[in-house]
Amino acid sequence: GKLGRYPPWPGKIVNPPKDLKKPRGKKCFFVKFFGTEDHAWIKVEQLKPYHPHKEEMIKINKGKRFQQAVDAVEEFLRKTKGKDQASSHNSTEEKNRRNSSEERGKQSAGEEKRKASLSEGKVKKGTGEGKKRVSSVSSERGSKSPLKRAQDQSPRKRGRPPKDEKDLTIPESSTVKRVMTGTVAGFKWPPSVSEPAKDSDPHFHHFLLSQTEKPTVCYQAITKKLKVCEEETGSTSIQAADSTAVNGSITPTDKKIGFLGLGLMGSGIVSNLLKMGHTVTVWNRTAEKCDLFIQEGARLGRTPAEVVSTCDITFACVSDPKAAKDLVLGPSGVLQGIRPGKCYVDMSTVDADTVTELAQVIVSRGGRFLEAPVSGNQQLSNDGMLVILAAGDRGLYEDCSSCFQAMGKTSFFLGEVGNAAKMMLIVNMVQGSFMATIAEGLTLAQVTGQSQQTLLDILNQGQLASIFLDQKCQNILQGNFKPDFYLKYIQKDLRLAIALGDSVNHPTPMAAAANEVYKRAKALDQSDNDMSAVYRAYIH
Fold this sequence. Notes:
Keywords: Chromosome. This is Cytokine-like nuclear factor N-PAC. Belongs to the HIBADH-related family. NP60 subfamily. The protein has helices at residues 50-60, 64-79, 84-88, 91-98, 102-105, 264-275, 291-295, 304-310, 321-329, 334-337, 352-364, 378-382, 394-399, 401-407, 419-447, 452-461, 467-478, 487-503, 509-523; strands spanning 10-13, 28-33, 39-43, 47-49, 115-118, 132-136, 175-179, 205-208, 226-229, 239-242, 257-260, 280-283, 299-300, 313-316, 343-346, 368-371, 374-375, 386-392, 408-413. The protein is of the alpha/beta class. Among the domains are: 11-84, Roll (SH3 type barrels), CATH 2.30.30; 237-416, 3-Layer(aba) Sandwich (Rossmann fold); 424-537, N-(1-d-carboxylethyl)-l-norvaline Dehydrogenase, domain 2, CATH 1.10.1040.10. Strands 8, 10, 11, 12, 13, 14, 15, 16, 17, 18 and 19 form an 11-stranded mixed beta sheet that branches. The protein has a 5-stranded antiparallel beta sheet with strand order 3-2-1-5-4. The N and C termini lie far apart (59 Å).
């Protein structure tokens, strides 16, 4: 089969937490993945011995993260040299493991820590296979978060990590990582592992959110180590498209894809489109940004008009309303390449009036238009875990199926053009206001003689605990303001959200106050830093 995003990955069997229930009817082991600190229940047939498959794995994957994982395996082997675990892993043991009964599966896996390279298998989830997001958190803070499920929204207690698992190291700062909920790697080993989803199009699943079923396999988090957030909602009026588990089974569209704008978000999106096998032509205002993607197999477009005229579907992701308009209406712009049947998807976060105007001029030339702003940041873009909010041409939305699955974990279709712009501004308004509140609290703690780290520890134990809160507080405490989401762009979104409120005479006093703080931060030359640099606006 064609390689998906994840090749076989090295891991070792460890003791599951006491409170962590084993999936019903599954002969599986609890596995820790080297180099990522992710954990998951893995079926027996998906496990392969490390040593016999080591060279095969290395040939398949040349990535930096994979090399780090291999290095971690070798380091583990060096540490455990002389112990029974190091010598017990061989092909005979693998055969015994495959033939082991359910009773043996219940025995302590800590007796023999085995290394395994993982192969592909799918787990059905409702009408589609959902992705889950994992972040590792400080081992000292012990944050918990409820695992939300469609039919049970109550928090679930987490198991404590086994005491003998002391070689587990978790970085101090949180990082967003991806975990396999079904497709755990890019290889298809036994055909029986994969089961087709019951849907007319197995690669892109539409479902009413109220009909989302709970997953057949639930990956529960380890207390004080990992947080798993399964994002589901009870909305009945909006349809969503849920991506396959790790995009391993995506069949890329045969349509030629164009992409304009290689910023923080666009770069990750294009990289994932290429990884999933799409034919992509790229253009960027500063051409040197295209070089990396040309090396990865992309084609170079000389102008936006050329990209649109040579591609079937052209995506764009630029900074603001002015840039979005200039890209379409400017010299050698998108509009000059539009002919009947050409498709344009604007992923920029802009106001509804701007996107409506662009839709009208595209459609007037016979083109098809979709707005598709994305919720996320650079890390989520790189990981292909964005949330896509789309509106406009429904047929075009469906034509973008494989592209959206490559770049995101979920996409929502919100109806007519303008709806996605409004929703995106509201989402970012909430996020921007929350970020300013976090900065306000941390600085108030400091000036009143309270420990900022302790404040974070307390917040991480309460109902406000989230990946966003933890990451941004870590940025501030470490003085690391490398942009994951530019401060100047969150301020732009707050400004546009306030204008949206003005247009319907709706008060937005919280956003207005936050906007003033971000403007202060911009005056302090923080525009090109991460949004968490709003903290510096509060420093006397």
